[in-house]
Amino acid sequence: MNVFIAFVLAAAPALLLLRYYYRQDRLRPEPKGLVLRVFVLGVVSAFLAIPLELLVGVFEGLFALSPLLYAAFKAFVVAALVEEYLKLAVVRLSAYRSPHFDEVMDGVVYTVVASLGFACMENILYVMGGTLQTALLRAFLAVPLHATASGLMGYYLGKAKFALDPGAERRLQNRGLRVAVLIHGTYNFLLFMAPEWGAASAWAVVPLVIVAFLLLRRRIRAALQEDGAAGRTPGGPSPTGSPTAS
Questions:
Q1: How far apart are CA 243 and CA 84, in angstroms?
Q2: Which domain holds residue 121?
Q3: What's the CA gap between 103 and 80, in Å, rounded?
Q4: Which residues, 6 or more positions from 154, have their beta carbon under 8 angstroms from its beta carbon?
Q5: Is 140 a member of any domain?
Q6: Span 20-36, average pLDDT
Q7: pLDDT tens digits, 112-170
Q8: C-alpha–C-alpha distance, residues 86 and 182, integer Å
Q9: pTM of the complete model
Q10: How many domains is the chain partitioned into structurally?
């Protein structure tokens, strides 16, 4: 493919999804400067993932005798755990303590932004040396998968921000990380097992991505309702029960 066309096809899916999810928080949108910072750090995290995955991948040999265990370790630990932890770290270091992070919904927004920065760079690396088919498949599967898995993690990160004690905060953050690793790892596992299980395994990622997208939509609605009920968004009840000014 032409280099310019390849770059556009690689970057466009992440940018379009970024716009979509950013608009879900239209009542109190996050400052664009902070959003850009998180996105750029997400891009940087894609480069950090390479040596970390190589380091963790040293242990893959322990599972070499079992294709199932080998694929599971590579999918859930080497790829999913490393990548989702990096995205979580990006948000915790750049946005979590910001005064602008003042809604449950903000957890969804910032983790999606970090994931799309990661996915954008990863996609560029794949597509620039690939084919049009690679670009299209990743546009409709891999990039949305990154956004939805991390967005679901972000819902729990947003709830953690308003936890009553540090213990509850840690539990919610860890729960979010586990959810993201489960979805992301399952996607990778199905692809890694395709040589053993056949094309049906690879095609199974399509309903997985759809289900993850629908689950995130439900979590977004829940986050907006929780923020409204707590008086964090315009038009919702205040903490004392009286309406807030719009």
A1: 38
A2: 3-229
A3: 26
A4: 91, 107, 108, 109, 110, 111, 112, 176
A5: yes
A6: 94
A7: 999 999 999 999 988 887 778 888 899 999 999 999 999 999 999 999 999 999 999 99
A8: 15
A9: 0.91
A10: 1
